Hints:
Layout: E1 3-4, E2 8-10, H1 12-15, H2 21-37, E3 40-44, H3 50-64, H4 68-71, E4 81-83, E5 98-103, H5 117-144, E6 162-168, E7 178-183, E8 189-194, E9 200-204, E10 207-211, E11 218-222, H6 224-229, E12 239-242, E13 249-256, E14 263-264, E15 276-277, H7 278-292
Helix pairs in contact: 2-5, 3-5
EC number: 1.14.11.13
Catalytic activity: gibberellin A1 + 2-oxoglutarate + O2 = gibberellin A8 + succinate + CO2
Pfam families: 2OG-FeII_Oxy (PF03171), DIOX_N (PF14226)
Amino acid sequence: MEECELPLIDLSVLKNGDDDEARKLDCINAIAKASSGWGFFQVVNHGVSLELLSKMRNEQMKLFQAPFEKKASCGLLNNSYRWGTPTATCPKQFSWSEAFHIPLTKISDESSYGEFSSLREVMVEYAAAMQELAKLLAGVLVMNMGQPKELLEEICDENTCFLRLNRYPAFPISPEIFGLVPHTDSDFLTILHQDEVGGLQLMKDSKWVAVKPNKNALIVNIGDLFQAWSNDVYKSVEHKVMVNRKVERFSIAYFLCPSYESMIGSCKEPSVYKRFTFGEYRHQIQEDVKLIGHKVGLPRFRL
Length: 303
Protein backbone atom coordinates (compact mmCIF):
# COMPACT_ATOMS: atom_id res chain seq x y z
CA MET A 1 0.00 0.00 0.00
CA GLU A 2 1.11 3.54 -0.72
CA GLU A 3 2.49 5.26 2.37
CA CYS A 4 2.02 8.99 2.81
CA GLU A 5 3.43 11.67 5.06
CA LEU A 6 0.73 13.99 6.30
CA PRO A 7 1.27 17.76 5.97
CA LEU A 8 3.66 18.72 8.77
CA ILE A 9 2.97 22.04 10.50
CA ASP A 10 5.25 23.76 13.02
CA LEU A 11 3.10 25.51 15.64
CA SER A 12 5.93 27.34 17.39
CA VAL A 13 4.97 30.65 15.80
CA LEU A 14 1.49 30.37 17.35
CA LYS A 15 2.56 28.88 20.68
CA ASN A 16 5.46 31.20 21.53
CA GLY A 17 3.85 34.59 21.05
CA ASP A 18 5.90 35.36 17.95
CA ASP A 19 5.26 38.86 16.58
CA ASP A 20 6.07 37.89 13.00
CA GLU A 21 2.64 38.33 11.43
CA ALA A 22 3.77 36.91 8.07
CA ARG A 23 4.90 33.65 9.69
CA LYS A 24 1.67 33.46 11.69
CA LEU A 25 -0.36 33.87 8.54
CA ASP A 26 1.66 31.19 6.78
CA CYS A 27 0.98 28.79 9.67
CA ILE A 28 -2.75 29.57 9.71
CA ASN A 29 -2.97 29.11 5.96
CA ALA A 30 -1.14 25.78 6.20
CA ILE A 31 -3.61 24.51 8.83
CA ALA A 32 -6.61 25.63 6.75
CA LYS A 33 -5.19 24.15 3.53
CA ALA A 34 -4.51 20.77 5.15
CA SER A 35 -7.96 20.75 6.77
CA SER A 36 -9.70 21.32 3.44
CA GLY A 37 -7.39 19.23 1.23
CA TRP A 38 -6.50 16.30 3.46
CA GLY A 39 -8.76 16.53 6.50
CA PHE A 40 -5.62 15.39 8.36
CA PHE A 41 -2.31 16.99 9.31
CA GLN A 42 0.43 16.55 11.89
CA VAL A 43 1.88 19.17 14.22
CA VAL A 44 5.23 19.64 15.92
CA ASN A 45 6.31 22.20 18.53
CA HIS A 46 2.74 21.86 19.76
CA GLY A 47 3.38 22.65 23.41
CA VAL A 48 2.79 19.13 24.76
CA SER A 49 6.10 17.95 26.21
CA LEU A 50 7.63 14.72 24.91
CA GLU A 51 8.18 13.73 28.55
CA LEU A 52 4.44 13.97 29.23
CA LEU A 53 3.63 11.97 26.09
CA SER A 54 6.09 9.28 27.16
CA LYS A 55 4.71 9.11 30.72
CA MET A 56 1.16 8.86 29.39
CA ARG A 57 2.15 6.01 27.07
CA ASN A 58 3.83 4.08 29.89
CA GLU A 59 0.80 4.46 32.16
CA GLN A 60 -1.50 3.42 29.33
CA MET A 61 0.52 0.24 28.68
CA LYS A 62 0.43 -0.69 32.39
CA LEU A 63 -3.34 -0.24 32.40
CA PHE A 64 -3.93 -2.49 29.40
CA GLN A 65 -1.62 -5.18 30.81
CA ALA A 66 -4.11 -5.76 33.62
CA PRO A 67 -6.32 -8.89 33.46
CA PHE A 68 -9.54 -8.53 31.49
CA GLU A 69 -11.69 -8.99 34.61
CA LYS A 70 -9.97 -6.06 36.29
CA LYS A 71 -10.27 -3.76 33.24
CA ALA A 72 -13.93 -4.62 32.79
CA SER A 73 -14.78 -4.29 36.47
CA CYS A 74 -17.49 -1.86 37.39
CA GLY A 75 -16.09 1.49 38.48
CA LEU A 76 -12.63 1.41 36.89
CA LEU A 77 -12.18 4.72 35.04
CA ASN A 78 -15.90 5.44 35.23
CA ASN A 79 -16.74 1.99 33.82
CA SER A 80 -15.45 3.22 30.45
CA TYR A 81 -13.81 0.01 29.18
CA ARG A 82 -14.81 -1.14 25.69
CA TRP A 83 -13.69 -4.11 23.62
CA GLY A 84 -14.55 -5.38 20.17
CA THR A 85 -17.79 -4.32 18.50
CA PRO A 86 -20.93 -5.66 20.22
CA THR A 87 -23.15 -4.49 17.34
CA ALA A 88 -21.11 -6.29 14.63
CA THR A 89 -23.05 -8.78 12.49
CA CYS A 90 -20.13 -9.71 10.18
CA PRO A 91 -16.30 -9.51 10.21
CA LYS A 92 -16.15 -6.23 8.28
CA GLN A 93 -18.06 -4.52 11.10
CA PHE A 94 -15.77 -5.83 13.84
CA SER A 95 -12.88 -3.88 15.43
CA TRP A 96 -10.05 -5.93 16.97
CA SER A 97 -9.25 -3.50 19.77
CA GLU A 98 -9.89 -2.48 23.35
CA ALA A 99 -10.25 1.01 24.73
CA PHE A 100 -11.13 3.25 27.67
CA HIS A 101 -13.42 6.07 26.48
CA ILE A 102 -13.34 8.57 29.34
CA PRO A 103 -15.20 11.89 29.75
CA LEU A 104 -12.81 14.64 30.82
CA THR A 105 -15.07 15.40 33.78
CA LYS A 106 -14.32 11.93 35.22
CA ILE A 107 -10.54 12.02 34.82
CA SER A 108 -9.89 13.69 38.19
CA ASP A 109 -12.15 11.26 40.10
CA GLU A 110 -9.71 9.50 42.47
CA SER A 111 -12.19 6.78 43.41
CA SER A 112 -12.33 5.32 39.88
CA TYR A 113 -8.60 4.52 39.50
CA GLY A 114 -8.20 1.69 42.00
CA GLU A 115 -4.61 0.43 41.98
CA PHE A 116 -3.77 2.62 38.93
CA SER A 117 -3.35 5.75 41.06
CA SER A 118 -0.25 6.95 39.19
CA LEU A 119 -2.32 7.13 35.99
CA ARG A 120 -4.58 9.85 37.39
CA GLU A 121 -1.97 12.59 37.81
CA VAL A 122 -0.51 11.98 34.35
CA MET A 123 -3.90 11.84 32.65
CA VAL A 124 -5.11 15.07 34.27
CA GLU A 125 -2.00 16.87 32.97
CA TYR A 126 -2.32 15.22 29.55
CA ALA A 127 -6.00 16.12 29.14
CA ALA A 128 -5.33 19.77 30.06
CA ALA A 129 -2.51 19.99 27.51
CA MET A 130 -4.64 18.44 24.77
CA GLN A 131 -7.57 20.70 25.56
CA GLU A 132 -5.36 23.78 25.26
CA LEU A 133 -3.96 22.58 21.91
CA ALA A 134 -7.42 21.68 20.58
CA LYS A 135 -8.78 25.14 21.40
CA LEU A 136 -5.81 26.77 19.68
CA LEU A 137 -6.36 24.77 16.48
CA ALA A 138 -10.13 25.17 16.55
CA GLY A 139 -9.70 28.91 17.01
CA VAL A 140 -7.46 29.07 13.94
CA LEU A 141 -9.97 27.16 11.83
CA VAL A 142 -12.89 29.30 13.04
CA MET A 143 -10.99 32.56 12.38
CA ASN A 144 -10.07 31.36 8.91
CA MET A 145 -13.80 31.28 8.13
CA GLY A 146 -14.19 34.89 9.30
CA GLN A 147 -15.67 34.09 12.71
CA PRO A 148 -14.41 35.03 16.22
CA LYS A 149 -11.87 32.48 17.45
CA GLU A 150 -13.70 32.06 20.80
CA LEU A 151 -16.83 30.78 19.06
CA LEU A 152 -16.38 27.10 19.95
CA GLU A 153 -15.15 27.74 23.49
CA GLU A 154 -18.74 28.46 24.53
CA ILE A 155 -19.93 24.98 23.57
CA CYS A 156 -16.76 22.83 23.89
CA ASP A 157 -15.24 22.46 27.36
CA GLU A 158 -14.16 19.72 29.75
CA ASN A 159 -17.82 18.86 30.37
CA THR A 160 -18.23 17.67 26.78
CA CYS A 161 -14.84 16.33 25.62
CA PHE A 162 -13.32 12.85 25.85
CA LEU A 163 -10.06 10.94 25.97
CA ARG A 164 -9.86 7.49 24.42
CA LEU A 165 -7.00 5.14 25.31
CA ASN A 166 -6.63 2.50 22.58
CA ARG A 167 -4.85 -0.84 22.33
CA TYR A 168 -4.79 -2.91 19.15
CA PRO A 169 -3.52 -6.43 19.97
CA ALA A 170 -1.42 -8.27 17.39
CA PHE A 171 -3.50 -10.52 15.15
CA PRO A 172 -1.30 -13.25 13.54
CA ILE A 173 -4.11 -15.03 11.68
CA SER A 174 -4.91 -12.43 9.02
CA PRO A 175 -3.47 -9.07 7.88
CA GLU A 176 -6.93 -7.94 6.76
CA ILE A 177 -8.61 -7.55 10.14
CA PHE A 178 -9.63 -4.06 11.25
CA GLY A 179 -8.28 -2.62 14.45
CA LEU A 180 -10.89 0.09 13.95
CA VAL A 181 -13.45 -0.12 11.15
CA PRO A 182 -13.61 2.62 8.49
CA HIS A 183 -15.35 5.71 9.90
CA THR A 184 -15.32 9.47 10.24
CA ASP A 185 -15.10 11.17 13.63
CA SER A 186 -18.30 12.76 14.95
CA ASP A 187 -16.66 15.66 16.80
CA PHE A 188 -15.16 19.01 15.74
CA LEU A 189 -11.60 17.73 15.70
CA THR A 190 -9.45 14.91 17.08
CA ILE A 191 -5.86 14.99 18.30
CA LEU A 192 -4.09 11.63 18.13
CA HIS A 193 -0.88 10.50 19.79
CA GLN A 194 0.18 7.17 18.27
CA ASP A 195 3.20 4.92 18.64
CA GLU A 196 5.61 3.98 15.85
CA VAL A 197 3.95 0.70 14.88
CA GLY A 198 1.74 2.23 12.19
CA GLY A 199 -1.65 1.00 11.02
CA LEU A 200 -3.60 4.24 10.55
CA GLN A 201 -4.93 4.58 7.01
CA LEU A 202 -7.06 7.30 5.45
CA MET A 203 -9.00 7.84 2.24
CA LYS A 204 -7.12 10.16 -0.12
CA ASP A 205 -8.11 10.71 -3.76
CA SER A 206 -10.57 7.76 -3.57
CA LYS A 207 -8.00 5.24 -2.33
CA TRP A 208 -6.64 4.09 1.00
CA VAL A 209 -3.15 5.32 1.94
CA ALA A 210 -1.12 4.35 5.00
CA VAL A 211 0.03 7.15 7.32
CA LYS A 212 3.75 7.04 8.07
CA PRO A 213 4.28 7.34 11.86
CA ASN A 214 6.22 10.33 13.19
CA LYS A 215 7.26 9.93 16.83
CA ASN A 216 7.69 13.69 17.33
CA ALA A 217 4.32 14.76 15.90
CA LEU A 218 0.69 14.68 16.95
CA ILE A 219 -1.92 13.92 14.31
CA VAL A 220 -4.96 16.17 13.95
CA ASN A 221 -8.05 15.33 11.95
CA ILE A 222 -11.24 17.20 11.15
CA GLY A 223 -14.53 15.75 12.43
CA ASP A 224 -18.05 15.78 11.01
CA LEU A 225 -19.14 18.84 12.98
CA PHE A 226 -16.41 21.05 11.52
CA GLN A 227 -17.31 19.87 8.02
CA ALA A 228 -20.97 20.74 8.60
CA TRP A 229 -20.17 24.06 10.28
CA SER A 230 -17.75 25.09 7.51
CA ASN A 231 -20.19 24.15 4.74
CA ASP A 232 -17.86 21.44 3.43
CA VAL A 233 -14.78 23.70 3.36
CA TYR A 234 -13.06 21.49 5.95
CA LYS A 235 -13.24 17.75 5.27
CA SER A 236 -14.05 14.96 7.71
CA VAL A 237 -12.19 12.12 6.02
CA GLU A 238 -12.86 8.41 6.35
CA HIS A 239 -10.07 6.53 8.12
CA LYS A 240 -9.40 3.15 9.70
CA VAL A 241 -6.79 1.19 11.65
CA MET A 242 -5.33 -2.10 10.44
CA VAL A 243 -3.78 -4.40 13.04
CA ASN A 244 -0.23 -5.68 12.91
CA ARG A 245 0.35 -9.43 12.68
CA LYS A 246 3.22 -9.41 15.20
CA VAL A 247 3.16 -6.24 17.28
CA GLU A 248 0.48 -4.56 19.40
CA ARG A 249 -0.27 -0.89 18.76
CA PHE A 250 -1.21 1.90 21.18
CA SER A 251 -2.74 5.33 20.63
CA ILE A 252 -4.53 8.05 22.59
CA ALA A 253 -7.21 10.26 21.05
CA TYR A 254 -8.60 13.54 22.36
CA PHE A 255 -12.05 14.47 21.01
CA LEU A 256 -13.21 18.10 20.94
CA CYS A 257 -16.99 17.80 21.33
CA PRO A 258 -19.83 20.22 22.11
CA SER A 259 -22.67 19.61 24.56
CA TYR A 260 -25.50 17.43 23.29
CA GLU A 261 -27.83 20.47 23.27
CA SER A 262 -25.48 22.55 21.10
CA MET A 263 -26.94 23.55 17.75
CA ILE A 264 -24.68 22.94 14.75
CA GLY A 265 -25.34 25.32 11.90
CA SER A 266 -23.37 26.57 8.94
CA CYS A 267 -21.06 29.58 9.33
CA LYS A 268 -22.42 30.95 6.04
CA GLU A 269 -25.43 30.72 3.76
CA PRO A 270 -26.70 29.00 1.75
CA SER A 271 -26.13 26.05 4.03
CA VAL A 272 -25.34 22.57 2.71
CA TYR A 273 -26.81 20.94 5.83
CA LYS A 274 -29.92 21.39 7.91
CA ARG A 275 -29.35 22.56 11.47
CA PHE A 276 -29.10 19.84 14.10
CA THR A 277 -28.00 19.41 17.69
CA PHE A 278 -25.06 17.22 18.56
CA GLY A 279 -27.48 15.01 20.51
CA GLU A 280 -29.64 14.52 17.41
CA TYR A 281 -26.56 13.65 15.39
CA ARG A 282 -25.35 11.07 17.90
CA HIS A 283 -28.82 9.54 18.13
CA GLN A 284 -29.06 9.16 14.34
CA ILE A 285 -25.64 7.50 14.23
CA GLN A 286 -26.65 4.99 16.91
CA GLU A 287 -29.90 4.19 15.11
CA ASP A 288 -28.08 3.63 11.81
CA VAL A 289 -25.54 1.32 13.45
CA LYS A 290 -28.37 -0.72 14.99
CA LEU A 291 -30.29 -0.98 11.73
CA ILE A 292 -27.60 -1.36 9.06
CA GLY A 293 -24.42 -2.05 11.01
CA HIS A 294 -22.48 1.11 10.19
CA LYS A 295 -22.51 4.88 10.56
CA VAL A 296 -24.01 7.01 7.78
CA GLY A 297 -23.20 10.39 9.32
CA LEU A 298 -23.45 13.74 7.54
CA PRO A 299 -25.30 12.56 4.40
CA ARG A 300 -28.34 12.07 6.65
CA PHE A 301 -28.41 15.81 7.34
CA ARG A 302 -27.64 17.18 3.89
CA LEU A 303 -30.31 19.50 2.45
